[in-house]
Each structure stands twice: as structure tokens, then as C-alpha cells.
């Protein structure tokens, strides 16, 4: 048992909730909670796999579990369960009816070399992260694409997949978005899914040159929460599925602290 603790560590109560979701049947010499804590440590502090502190299990073991849980959807399952629990704790239905969508362009690094583009509007080379959140700021779903992808057409292309795979999206009736989602996305969401897309124009508040629009500030806050984790401050991942996984893990870490 290690002596040193880290701010990213799971509490005993949080671990009791999460461990029941993990699809691990075989016996291991390593404590499963320590493997999860090592993944959380890496996500928050942004180190490379080989530099995970020695008091955790070997980095090869930790990485093996991380990759298995990316492939089999375990991180998604944990995230969705914690969101459902969090919503019920806040006296809301576990399935939201309102969502907010937005994208964030992030710079790539020397290790993120696949699926890269240039965002012509922001003049940033890298990838674009899409966030779909509820009114509490919980990350309902997400995906990562090259930065030269247009918001509206990319979002509608991916919506069919995430809508069919994610039970948290089944009752969505309204989505708040900015103007880049006002064309194809808005029309097809109405005709294909009977979901209204609201694009607030009049700001509800203003701080300096920053205008705050109804509901849209919620997704901006979620983006800020994600960027608090150094592994997410830039895109360090070769594969977009890994880049997306760290967004989900960041949300899991935040919700786990609320249990």
C-alpha cells in the first residue's frame, strides 16, 4: 500500500461505485483501484506513461487496462452512470431533455500526427473537440475530428452514431448552439430527429468584450473543466479515440469527487 496520496485519487466511496462497472473477471496481483488512480494521475498531471510514479502499478499494466477500457466502451459506461447518478442527486430525471453543443479547437503536438487539420477561422493547426453537455455541464457525449472540419456538417454526421449508442440522448428535445450549427445541423436535427436547435443571439450578460448567451455558457464551463487537466491542455494523442477518451476521463474524475 502506497503512503503518498495525490489530488487525483479516488475516494473509497467513489471507488465502490465505479468498481461495479469495470468488466474485469480475472485475478490480478495489482489493486484495480490503483490502476484507475494511475490513469487519473496521468490525465490530471499530463506526464507520459513511462513517468507514472513508481508507487503505482507498472506503466505497461496501467496502459493495458486503459486501452482495453477505451476499446470496450468501459469509460463511456462509467461516465454515463455517474451522470445519471449526478442528475438524480440534483432532483432531475436521469435522461436530460435539453443539451448544449459546441466545439473547441486545440493545438496538436509532435506526437499527435494523425487526423490533423487547420482551423481557418482561429488559425490553429490541430484537432477539434465536440462537446455535448446537459444543463449541469455533464459531458453526455463527445468526439474528436481534424480542426478543418466544419461544425454543423460534422456534428450532424456524428449525431446518428452517438444518438443510437447513448441512452442519455434518447429524450433530447432541444439543443442550444452557436451560429455555426445554424444551417445543415439545425435543419436535419428538426427533420430527422424532431429536435429543436436554439441559437441564442441576444446576450444575457457581458463581461468586458465577452458576451454570455443563454445556456451556451454551460458548455464553455465544461470546456474549461476539461482543460484543467494537463493531458487535455493540448492534443498529445496519435489516435483521436484516445484524445476523446481523456475528455471522458476528465468528466469522470470531476463527477467522482461529487459522490
UniProtKB/TrEMBL annotation:
It comes from the Bacteria. Residues 95-252 form the Transposase IS4-like domain. Pfam families: DDE_Tnp_1 (PF01609), DUF4096 (PF13340). GO terms for biological process: DNA transposition. Residues 10-78 form the Insertion element IS402-like domain. GO terms for molecular function: DNA binding; transposase activity. PANTHER family: PHP DOMAIN PROTEIN (PTHR30007), TRANSPOSASE (PTHR30007:SF0). This is IS5 family transposase. It comes from Chryseobacterium endophyticum. The lineage of its organism: Bacteria, Pseudomonadati, Bacteroidota, Flavobacteriia, Flavobacteriales.
Amino acid at each position: 500500500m502506497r503512503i503518498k496520496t495525490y489530488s487525483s485519487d479516488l475516494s473509497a466511496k467513489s471507488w465502490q461505485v465505479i468498481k461495479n462497472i469495470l468488466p474485469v473477471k480475472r485475478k490480478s496481483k495489482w489493486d484495480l483501484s490503483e490502476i484507475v488512480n494511475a490513469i487519473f494521475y496521468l490525465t490530471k498531471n499530463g506526464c507520459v506513461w513511462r513517468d507514472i510514479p513508481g508507487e503505482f502499478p507498472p506503466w505497461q499494466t496501467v496502459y493495458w487496462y486503459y486501452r482495453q477500457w477505451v476499446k470496450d466502451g468501459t469509460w463511456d459506461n462509467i461516465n454515463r452512470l455517474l451522470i445519471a447518478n449526478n442528475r438524480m442527486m440534483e432532483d432531475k430525471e436521469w435522461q436530460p431533455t435539453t443539451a448544449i453543443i459546441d466545439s473547441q479547437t486545440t493545438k496538436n503536438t509532435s506526437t499527435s500526427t494523425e487526423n490533423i487539420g487547420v482551423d481557418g477561422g482561429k488559425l490553429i493547426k490541430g484537432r477539434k473537440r465536440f462537446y455535448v453537455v446537459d444543463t449541469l455541464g455533464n459531458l453526455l457525449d463527445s468526439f474528436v475530428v481534424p480542426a478543418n472540419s466544419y461544425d454543423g456538417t460534422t456534428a450532424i454526421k456524428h449525431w446518428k452514431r452517438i444518438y443510437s449508442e447513448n441512452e442519455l440522448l434518447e429524450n433530447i428535445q432541444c439543443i442550444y448552439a452557436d451560429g455555426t450549427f445554424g444551417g445543415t445541423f439545425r435543419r436535419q436535427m428538426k427533420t430527422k430527429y424532431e429536435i429543436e436547435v436554439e441559437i441564442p443571439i441576444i446576450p444575457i450578460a457581458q463581461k468586458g468584450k465577452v458576451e454570455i448567451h443563454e445556456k451556451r455558457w454551460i458548455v464553455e464551463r465544461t470546456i474549461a473543466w476539461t482543460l484543467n487537466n494537463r493531458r487535455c491542455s493540448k492534443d498529445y494523442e496519435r489516435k483521436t479515440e484516445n484524445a476523446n477518451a481523456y475528455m471522458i476521463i476528465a468528466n469522470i474524475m470531476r463527477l467522482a469527487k461529487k459522490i
